[in-house]
Design brief:
With 422 residues, the chain is an alpha+beta fold. It contains 11 helices and 5 strands. The protein is rod-shaped.
Length: 422
């Protein structure tokens, strides 16, 4: 229930509580002003006794509503008894003086579902209309047939009007109940939707953790393979050379083999450092992804002599370190491929922030190639598309390549936008 609905209910409650007091007082003032001074004392005593009884009745009903709020606002036997007694008092008072019909009109307010209930509502309206129509026809008892005819017409008009008002009020109350039910259902739906969004966010975070763990495992396997193919083989060669030195009698051949051993050792050390360096991009140590890409593209352009441009679109955000590292590695691999194979005169790199995803586009005007005719990747070179695609897929992303011989190459990596852990 809204604040406005609560205020309206409170005003209606105040009207039901204090309205009969006001209407009784309004009827008393003109009744006293028009009273017959020659009336018998019995009539005066009766009028004042009925007036006092009406006041006592209202005070008692007021106490019921204050002490037991639900009893005064829902249909009950007590409410029906109160309505009947008040109607009888109003009828007799109106018989004595027609101006007390104001008090009888209070029945129009209370002859609803709050006191009589739906079944007795129309009967209560008709009873109140009888009293009011009698006063409008000139007061009771009627002294002529004309008064009876006027009374009948007024009764039909009063009861018909009140029936129409009651019907319209009932329809409005039904619409209000339906609106309340709709609002309640919408609140439940919104709560369920928020719960689903929270669960989706938790699942997304869990998937990111799993993807990161899978990436770490893949990187470890890659590092192990590189160490096996480079450092292990180099060390094996060093051992072989040293074994030859141990079995060589002359000094010159020994120095030659020692020189080879030192060269292999230096090369193996360089390979070891490169493998370790690949585990963590130093370009992201002190800068975000846009700054790291801008620096990488600028250095690549200076090194290759190719006109290279970098652009950021959308509102740049601080990305999760795994997302930043993945996109930077893809860009570095793509630039390396372009330098080795594309023979381009112009290259453009665009980083786009699109709300729930990040897109890295790399385009060049080089020679292009036929994706279906790519040779198998070897340790000495290749395009590295499988490696870039695997990097993107590890964090629930994708990689697409558009190219053909003589028309350049366009590479696009799309990954979820996962913000940096705060």
């Amino acid at each position: 229930m809204t604040v406005v609905d609560s205020q309206i209910d409170r005003r209606w409650d105040q009207l039901h509580t204090w309205g009969p007091y006001g209407l009784l007082l309004i009827g008393l003032v003109p009744a006293l002003a028009t009273a017959d001074p020659h009336a018998s004392p019995a009539k005066w005593y009766t009028a004042w006794a009925l007036f006092g009884a009406a006041v006592v009745l209202q005070l008692g009903w007021h106490g019921v509503r204050v002490r037991r709020p639900g009893r005064g606002r829902t249909p009950s036997r007590t409410g029906t008894a109160y309505y009947v007694v008040r109607w009888a008092l109003a009828f007799v008072l109106t018989w004595i003086n027609p101006f007390f019909a104001f008090y009888a009109a209070a029945g129009y307010m209370d002859a609803d579902e709050t006191i009589l209930g739906r079944r007795r509502q129309r009967l209560g309206l008709l009873a109140s209309a009888v009293t009011v129509a009698g006063a409008q026809a000139g007061g009771m008892p009627f002294g002529s047939g004309v008064q009876w005819a006027v009374f009948a017409a007024l009764l039909v008009a009063n009861s018909g009007l009140q029936m129409v008002i009651a019907h319209l009020t009932e329809q409005e109350m039904q619409r209000a109940r339906e609106r309340t039910a709709t609002i309640t259902e919408l609140e439940r739906t919104n709560a369920a939707l928020q719960q689903a969004l929270d669960e989706n966010a938790a699942l997304h975070a869990q998937l990111l953790v799993q993807a990161r763990e899978a990436g770490v495992a893949d990187e470890r396997r890659r590092l192990a393979a590189e160490i096996h193919d480079t450092i292990a083989q180099g060390l094996t060669g060093i051992i072989a050379q040293l074994q030859v030195v141990a079995g060589t009698p002359g000094s010159e051949p020994a120095r030659e083999h020692l020189g080879r051993a030192m060269d292999l050792a230096r090369h193996s050390l360089g390979e070891a450092r490169r493998s370790v360096h690949n585990l963590a991009p130093v370009e992201l140590a002190d800068a975000g992804l846009p700054e790291a890409l801008k620096k990488t593209v600028a250095e690549w352009g200076e090194r290759t002599g190719v006109r290279a441009e970098f652009t950021v679109t959308g509102t740049a955000e601080q990305l999760h370190e795994e997302v930043s590292a993945t996109l930077l590695r893809i860009a570095q691999e793509a630039l390396s491929n372009a330098a080795r194979h594309a023979r381009a005169s112009r290259l453009g790199v665009t980083l786009s922030f699109l709300g729930d995803e990040v897109i890295l586009d790399i385009r060049d005007d080089g020679t292009g190639f036929d994706p279906l005719a790519l040779p198998a990747r070897t340790g000495s070179g290749g395009f590295g598309l499988d490696g870039m695609r695997a990097r993107a897929e590890r964090i629930a992303g994708s990689l697409t390549v558009e190219t053909e011989p003589g028309h350049g190459t366009a590479l696009s990596a799309r990954v979820p936008l996962v913000r940096h852990d705060s």
